[in-house]
Write a structure and sequence with these properties.
Chain A is mostly helical and about 120 residues long. Chain A has four helices and no strands. Classes of the chains: A mainly alpha (about 120), B mainly alpha (about 240).
Chain lengths: ~120, ~240
Amino acid sequence: MPGYSLIDAPWWPYVFLVLAGALPTHVWRWLGVAFGSRMREDSEALRWVRAVATALVAAVVARLVLYPQGQLAELPLHFRIFAYLGGFAAFLVIGRRPIAGIVAGEALLLASLWWTGVV
Amino acid sequence: MADLARESSRLWFLRGCRGVVSIPGLVLLASMIGFAGLARESGVSLAFATTMTAVIWALPSQVVLIGAIMSGASFWATVLAIVLCSVRLMPMTVALLPTVRAPETPRWQLYLISNFIAVTAFVVAVAELPKVPRAMRVAWFSGFAITLVAANTVMTAVAFATLDSLPPAVAVCLFFLTPLYFTFSLWTAARASLERIAFVVGFLVLPVFHALDPTLDLVFAGLVGGTAVYLYDRHARRRRAE
């Protein structure tokens, strides 16, 4: 049963938003304040936490690039990967500036859209 | 004396508000437009999407929650995915607090401002806070964070309402901003090769888990990919130590 439509009531989506979206996010901020001084950045537990959290956000990125919604889905997969990796390459080459990667990635995406005639 | 302190708190609060006008702040605003587009496609309402920005205030959690709604993930699968993707906020909070707090800062103020800690707030605060007098840092960060959340909440609503009238090419570009922004902000914030390897592995294993179960793919990619990279990293460190 999907969590979003678990209870058929107009208020449920908002309760779901708080219980499944906001609380699981905020709890880490509160724990950060609570344990703040007692936690070492390079402890084994925190290393594992950083690896898992980074891999999960990377998976979010992969899902947005590989399985997008809406009109981006009409652009063939290899063009999406090309624009993403091109932006990444520009970011790495031009001094690791996010803005450089974003501009390059978007420019390559626009070029691909124009080239394929998707939009 | 007390009047003078209050006066200068207000001044630093207002200076914090101005901190929103920065490259990371503007990129986040643009990414919020991308989020609004994603939320629209998923079928949730304008009010719901706007509430998400105001109440959750962490773009990865928001994107994961929309993904869970779209894929029909169960309640507990959603909770698990959000818990795992926002774990990073804890080390971020731990790292930021010694810079924000003054010796006399009450604990409740720390809990309150911790709710605003997210990637962009962290990146800007780390760069700007050292220029602020220590006693005024909580005031500066509050002004900055509250303005950032308010601006992005308004942006979510406005973008959601107007996206339909944008040319399709613009809408597609805005959608594409989210993956680019996440990639570069993570890569910039990464302190060690551990995180960069975890990023590449998480990306590469996602299709495998997506094929197995599209409602739990993020959780599996994060747990399996992240744990594998952690174990590899620990092994490599021990060999170097020998």
